[in-house]
UniProtKB/TrEMBL annotation:
It comes from Aminobacter aganoensis. InterPro entries: RutC-like_sf, YjgF/YER057c/UK114. This is Enamine deaminase RidA (YjgF/YER057c/UK114 family). CDD domains: YjgF_YER057c_UK114_like_6.
Length: 126
């Protein structure tokens, strides 16, 4: 069974995507940037953006019947190599015991205010 998860973000409708898609025992969470979706504002710091990403991801997983402990794969996209040492401790707070397979890439993102984007895949634990 396929279930689509939305944050209610206007970007999802405009660009034609879901925040997450649940397919059977899997949940695929789209690349998530640091917006506060309650206000559609973007904090300035990469640390605050990272925390927002993780909160949005956690909610999408919960809405799909999953938990952060179900995450098996994570992709991190950052816009500046200097952000690595700033975001590693925050990521470690969330994923330190879960330890999904992960990749971090330095690249440009869609808007100049975006400093990080996180995408995860979760598999329901049996």
């Amino acid at each position: 069974m396929r279930k689509l998860i939305s944050t209610g973000s206007p970007f999802e409708k405009t660009a034609g995507y879901s925040r997450a898609v649940v397919q059977g025992e899997w949940c695929f969470v789209s690349g998530t940037t640091g917006y506060d979706y309650a206000t559609i504002t973007m904090p300035d710091s990469v640390e605050a953006q990272t925390r927002n990403c993780l909160a949005t991801i956690a909610k999408a997983l919960k809405d799909g019947g999953f938990d952060m402990t179900d995450v098996v794969r994570a992709h991190y996209y950052i816009t500046d190599q200097a952000h690595v040492d700033l975001v590693f401790p925050i990521l470690g707070e969330t994923f330190g015991d879960i330890r999904p397979a992960a990749t971090m890439i330095v690249c440009q993102l869609n808007k100049p205010e975006m400093k990080i984007e996180i995408e995860v895949t979760a598999l329901k634990r049996t």
